[in-house]
């Protein structure tokens, strides 16, 4: 995916200024930066939830800027949010059937009963190590389990790029390791992943490429080791 | 040309009534952040109370009018205390409050229907005088009074909001409830006052309507729709805006008769309402602040 | 006499069940804030009445009632697509007022306040509905079929998408689903069934006027759906029975008819306020009212 010179402002606030990134297929890329640097805004622009004011976004050579949000998703982008977005009155099974199934056609949906078999759902849940009965309601899950389900539906939905916004925020150390392992598994299977993460440590031994955002601009990019030593990056995090 | 003049004058008269309704509604909305549709019932109750006190009990007119205003204010306060505040305590969403207000509107329409019967009532304090001609347009003394009272009340309301402590407190709550409450302003007290003042003004509207036109049990519905339209057109969070918007509605719906049959007056207002809600919900003067998006 | 009265109530229960399940489909299951459901009923009733009065067979009036209402359902969702919360509720209310106003003022088409009398009873395949008992049978069958269809939709994969739209529209958007299309379809289905029920109502009552589909009726169906509970078909059916029967106790008091009408509405309004205050989820509600 290519992000070319994207800008976005909200009223007088310049949330993004001329950001450019190249997300290479098969790699894990991390997007880091201090609070308020515009990381989530960039995600929202890419997934077309928020229109950009300048620049464009290409996915596998196709210009996806300005496409409707759901269309960008259909083109192959799967994403999660900082706050877990699940459907509070539905069950685990429901979530995965929505992610994996094709129920939008009313007629087809009317005539056919569940299009996605439990077996496939269980396989998907196994990928994220979520071991709970399929009929469990989201409200009966712990925060960590919800994070896993959130991840599961993003993975389950057909995609070519996985964008995760703070996948381990607020998560206990055991779960962090689980999620880290899941991401490494996905990487080993050739998946392309873009992560926003606050925690530099989590990111450093996971990502092959790191972009650093500060006050809406890309201030550095490169391999994790180089970034850690980059003076501009340290300045951005420490203040000033 | 004289026709337009007459229609314009008619529009001012209608606008004055709508402004009285809309200003109270807007005051309550700005302070409490929900739609109090039952405000229309307050106007109707005002008219019927005057009828009850003056025509049925035989009290002297000004005493009856005063009594009406006081009782109407209490009526509004009652709705706030008995229904809205308890609902808000139970974390009722804005939609719930809106539905409750529609229920209250229906409730009082029908209470009036039972108490006073479905027929039309008139106050009959002033004999119908022939109108005088001002610049080609005919206007009766009472109608002049209506416009005058309305304008004076709106100016008084404006001064009240700007100059008095209570007025400033109300504007603070309207602007930012949390901040105001931190600053020591009691939001429930302010809420009560907004209902009392808004309802008192509605009571005056009821009195004027009773004198100028007739009272009928379902009058509240059309009045609140018109008043609400005026508030939306002018800017629902802005009381002066609601007043201006109401005059706009009054004039537009009357001048609209030049092109459409007069029965369509209401349709013109509704059309205006729908159009504004779709394309400019903040109204001419309103700011987006404070209108709840779910 | 009692028998006629019971049949009358049962007919109303059947028709109102269709109103309430269709309303719940949009409001409770899909989370579509809509205060204009009575407009769909009214548009359906008027479409059917006008077609029947100009000689069309009942089945045509019946189907077109649903189709025309469903078209207005789409129009409502489309025109309000950018609104949320308060403003959305108001815009739908505004739509209801505009519809009422048009029905009242387009006298060439609708005869305005005079209403449409003499709407024919249903007749098809040579059989015509003579007595109220036959009407009850028809209405009951139609209600069962409609509710079964709506129930199937709700329980299907599409119904799952509807509930997802209600629970988190953006969450569903990023899963690649066209949420606007889902909302539009849900509203059109809701309006369709409201419309055909309106057609049945018009033929049963045989006289309609714009006021039949206005504020009071809105309060009634809102009360039914809220008392029954959001997102529950069982709730809507039970709610219909309960709410329609409550004012019947008023008959015990032998009130004159001029008081009975308003008294019934007072009861509905009080029940609605009471439920909102003391049991907002109603009897079987699975979801908090949006």
Any low-confidence stretches of chain A, pLDDT <50, length ≥5?
A: none
Instruction: Characterize the main sheet of chain B.
Output: 2 strands, antiparallel
Please count the beta strands of chain B (DSSP E, at least 2 residues each).
2
Multimeric state of these chains? heterotrimer
Strand count of chain A: 10
> How would you classify the helix and strand content of chain A by structural class?
alpha/beta
% residues in beta strands of chain A: 15-25%
Q: What is the overall number of helices of chain B? A: 11
Tell me roughly what share of residues is in helical segments of chain B. Answer: over 70%
The average pLDDT score of chain B comes to 87
Biggest sheet of chain B: strands side by side, in what order?
Answer: 1-2
* N-to-C series of helices and strands of chain A: EEEHEEHEHHHHEHEHEEHH
Main beta sheet of chain A:
6 strands, mixed
From the N-terminal CA to the C-terminal CA of chain A, the straight-line distance is 32 Å
- Helix share of residues of chain A? 25-40%
Distance from N terminus to C terminus of chain B (CA atoms, Å) equals 48 Å
Range of strand content of chain B: under 5%
Largest interface between protein chains, with number of residues from each side? B-C, 46 and 47 residues
Short note summarizing the structure:
Chain B is mainly alpha-helical.
Structural write-up:
The complex is a heterotrimer of chains A (240), B (294) and C (290). Chain A contains ten helices and ten strands. Chain A has helices at residues 39-46, 69-75, 92-100, 106-111, 118-127, 143-156, 173-188, 200-204, 224-229, 231-238; strands at 2-10, 13-22, 28-32, 54-59, 62-63, 77-79, 161-165, 193-196, 209-214, 217-222. A six-stranded mixed sheet of chain A has the order 6-7-8-3-9-10, with helices on both faces. Chain A has a four-stranded antiparallel sheet with strand order 2-1-4-5, covered by helices on one side. In chain A, helix 3 runs parallel beside helix 6 (143-156). Chain B is mostly helical and 294 residues long. Chain B has a domain at 16-218. Chain B is built from eleven helices and two strands, in the order ααααββααααααα. Chain B has helices spanning 2-32, 39-56, 61-89, 94-116, 141-163, 165-175, 177-182, 187-212, 219-234, 239-255, 265-279; strands at residues 132-134, 137-139. In chain B, strands 1-2 form a two-stranded antiparallel sheet. Chain B is globular. Chain C has one domain (2-212). Chain C has a two-stranded antiparallel sheet with strand order 1-2. In chain C, a hairpin with a 2-residue loop joins strand 1 (123-124) and strand 2 (127-128). The longest helix of chain C is centred in the N-terminal third of the chain and has 28 residues, at 2-29. Chain C is globular, with a radius of gyration of 18 Å. The model of chain C has no long low-confidence stretch (mean pLDDT 90). The chains are: A alpha/beta (240), B mainly alpha (294), C mainly alpha (290). At the B-C interface, helix 3, helix 4, helix 9 and helix 11 of B face helix 4, helix 10 and helix 12 of C.
């Amino acid at each position: 995916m290519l992000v070319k010179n994207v800008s976005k402002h909200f009223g007088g606030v310049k949330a993004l200024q001329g950001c450019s990134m190249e997300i290479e297929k098969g790699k894990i890329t991390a997007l880091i930066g201090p609070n308020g640097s515009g990381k989530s805004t960039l995600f929202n622009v890419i997934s077309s939830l928020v229109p950009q004011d300048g620049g464009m976004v290409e996915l596998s050579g196709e210009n996806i800027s300005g496409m409707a949000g759901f269309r960008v998703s259909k083109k192959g982008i799967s994403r999660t949010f900082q706050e877990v977005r699940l459907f509070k009155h539905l069950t685990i099974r429901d979530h995965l059937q929505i992610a994996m199934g094709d129920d939008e056609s009313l007629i087809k949906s009317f005539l056919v009963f569940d299009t996605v078999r439990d077996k496939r759902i269980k396989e998907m849940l196994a990928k994220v190590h979520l071991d709970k009965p399929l009929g469990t309601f989201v409200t009966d899950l712990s925060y960590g389990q919800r994070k896993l389900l959130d991840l599961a539906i993003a993975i389950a939905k057909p995609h070519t790029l996985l964008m995760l916004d703070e996948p381990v925020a607020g998560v206990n150390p055991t779960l962090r390791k689980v999620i880290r392992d899941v991401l490494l598994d996905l990487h080993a299977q050739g998946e392309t992943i873009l992560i926003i993460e606050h925690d530099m440590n989590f990111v450093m031994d996971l990502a092959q490429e790191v972009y650093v955002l500060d006050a809406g601009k890309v201030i550095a990019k490169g391999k994790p080791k180089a970034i850690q030593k980059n003076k501009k990056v340290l300045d951005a995090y420490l203040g000033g | 040309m004289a026709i337009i003049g007459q229609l314009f004058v008619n529009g001012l008269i209608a606008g004055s009534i709508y402004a009285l309704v809309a200003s109270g509604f807007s005051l309550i909305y700005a302070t409490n952040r929900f739609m109090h549709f039952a405000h229309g019932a307050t106007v109707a109750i005002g008219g019927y109370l005057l009828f009850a006190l003056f025509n049925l009990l035989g009290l002297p007119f000004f005493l009856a009018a005063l009594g009406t205003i006081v009782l109407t204010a209490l009526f509004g306060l009652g709705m706030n205390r008995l229904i809205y505040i308890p609902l808000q305590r139970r974390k009722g969403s804005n939609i719930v409050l809106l539905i409750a207000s529609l229920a209250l509107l229906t409730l009082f329409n029908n209470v009036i229907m039972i108490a006073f019967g479905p027929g039309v009532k008139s106050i009959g304090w002033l004999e119908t005088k022939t109108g005088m001609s001002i610049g080609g347009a005919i206007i009766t003394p009472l109608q002049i009074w209506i416009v005058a009272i309305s304008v004076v009340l709106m100016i008084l309301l404006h001064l009240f909001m700007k100059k008095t402590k209570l007025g400033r407190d109300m504007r603070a709550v309207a602007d930012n409830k949390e901040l105001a409450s931190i600053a020591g302003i009691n939001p429930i007290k302010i809420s009560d006052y907004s209902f009392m003042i808004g309802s008192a003004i509605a009571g005056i509207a009821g009195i004027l309507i009773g004198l100028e036109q007739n009272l009928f049990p379902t009058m509240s519905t059309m009045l609140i729709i018109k008043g609400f339209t005026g508030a939306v057109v002018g800017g629902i969070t802005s009381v002066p805006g609601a007043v201006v918007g109401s005059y706009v509605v009054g004039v537009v719906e009357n001048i609209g008769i030049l092109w459409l049959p007069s029965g369509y007056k209401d349709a013109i207002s509704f059309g205006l309402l729908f159009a504004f809600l779709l394309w400019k919900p903040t109204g001419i003067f309103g700011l987006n602040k404070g209108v709840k998006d779910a | 006499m009692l028998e006629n009265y019971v049949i009358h109530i049962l007919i109303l229960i059947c028709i109102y069940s269709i109103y309430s399940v269709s309303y719940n489909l949009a409001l409770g299951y899909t989370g579509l804030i809509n205060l204009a459901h009575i407009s769909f009923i009214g548009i359906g009733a008027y479409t059917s009445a006008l077609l029947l009065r100009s000689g069309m067979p009942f089945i045509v009036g019946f189907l077109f009632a649903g189709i025309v209402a469903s078209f207005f359902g789409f129009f409502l969702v489309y025109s309000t697509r950018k609104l949320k919360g308060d403003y959305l509720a108001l815009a739908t209310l505004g739509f209801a007022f505009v519809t009422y106003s048009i029905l009242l003022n387009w006298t060439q088409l609708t005869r305005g306040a005079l209403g449409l009398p003499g709407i024919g009873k249903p007749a098809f395949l040579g059989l015509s509905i003579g007595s109220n008992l036959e009407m009850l049978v028809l209405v009951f069958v139609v209600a069962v079929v409609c509710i079964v269809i709506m129930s199937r939709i709700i329980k299907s994969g599409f119904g799952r998408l509807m509930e997802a739209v209600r629970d988190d529209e953006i969450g569903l958007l990023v899963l690649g689903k066209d949420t606007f299309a889902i909302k539009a379809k849900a509203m059109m289905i809701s309006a369709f069934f409201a419309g055909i029920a309106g057609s049945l109502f018009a033929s049963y009552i045989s006289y309609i006027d714009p006021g039949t589909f206005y504020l009071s009726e809105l309060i009634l169906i809102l009360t039914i759906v809220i008392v029954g509970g959001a997102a529950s078909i069982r709730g809507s059916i039970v709610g219909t029975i309960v709410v329609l029967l409550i004012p019947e106790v008023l008959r015990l008091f032998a009130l004159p008819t001029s008081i009975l009408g308003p008294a019934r509405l007072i009861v509905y309004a009080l029940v609605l306020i009471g439920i909102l205050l003391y049991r907002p989820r109603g009897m079987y509600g699975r979801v908090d009212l949006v």
